[in-house]
Design goal:
Length: about 270
């Protein structure tokens, strides 16, 4: 996995260099501090993933200018661009996406770290050559839906959620209980207690809602959530994605989210 980091903060660069040493998968990391060196690197070396700092204060331009120039170059295949920024402006993030950014990580998020960025990049890299969703296995489709929301390979509980959603999709009954019908299956599979399975899922959801930008969440989980908590419950997330897949609409969000949510809450009980 060849990654180019465009970052002018030396301390931040050192954190990424240090993080690479402890990754469980191979990464070839190159670091440049400005746009001129970035374009030289791209022209000489095939680069699959670019980590782009948006505000390059001590450089020969900024991240927006880089995206504009890269778009004009029409490189094929286009690198997957992950923007890393402290800027939380929705308008700025929308502009950055328009110019070609594929994903945005906020440095201001509580759980932000270079390892989290690398894990997310690895999720993309490990799936980029796989078949389209319609020819995927059910587990691949579920994983694809979770990753669109922002669940990364390094989030504990993601595998539990994949198995839980798969179990609900396969269930041949109208009423299914997580505590009675789902958690015990996962507990046996992973040799954990039901309580630890439930907690790991909840932690994975909370962490994902903390690190994923608001626009991505609203696009891929367009359902009202509890105002007090700010993130969905295990049941809400599991049954939402399961119902989405059952209806054959996993590639696009529901058109009628209110009806879907009401259906899930009234026909499925925990």
């Amino acid at each position: 996995m060849k990654i180019l980091l465009i970052e002018d903060d030396k301390a931040h660069c050192e954190k990424y260099k240090e993080s690479v040493k402890y990754l469980p998968y191979p990464v070839e990391l190159s670091i440049v501090n400005g746009l001129k060196d970035a374009f030289k690197h791209i022209e000489k070396e095939p680069t699959g993933i670019i980590l782009l700092d948006l505000e390059l204060h001590d450089s020969d331009g900024d991240g927006v200018l880089f995206l504009q120039k890269l778009r004009d170059m029409k490189i094929t295949p286009k690198p997957y661009i992950i923007v890393i920024t402290s800027n939380r402006s929705i308008e700025t993030q929308a502009m950055v996406r328009e110019y070609g950014a594929d994903y945005i990580f906020s440095k201001a998020k509580k759980d932000y770290s270079p390892r989290l960025v690398f894990d997310f990049a690895h999720c993309y890299f490990s799936r980029e050559d796989k078949a389209e969703p319609e020819s995927m296995s059910l587990e691949d489709i579920v994983t694809h839906e979770l990753e669109k929301i922002g669940f990364t390979c390094g989030v504990v509980g993601k595998n539990y959620l994949v198995l839980a959603i798969t179990t609900v999709v396969h269930a041949n009954k109208n009423h299914i209980s997580l505590k009675r019908d789902v958690y015990p299956i996962i507990a046996r599979e992973f040799k954990k207690s039901d309580e630890s399975i439930e907690k790991a899922m909840r932690t994975a959801i909370l962490k994902t809602w903390r690190i994923t930008d608001l626009e991505t969440l609203q696009k891929n989980y367009p359902v009202n959530i509890d105002y007090d908590t700010g993130y969905p419950t295990n049941k809400e997330l599991i049954f939402y994605i399961a119902e989405k897949i059952k209806r054959g609409s996993a590639a696009t969000p529901f058109a009628d989210n209110v009806t879907t949510t009401h259906h899930l809450h009234t026909t499925l009980r925990q």
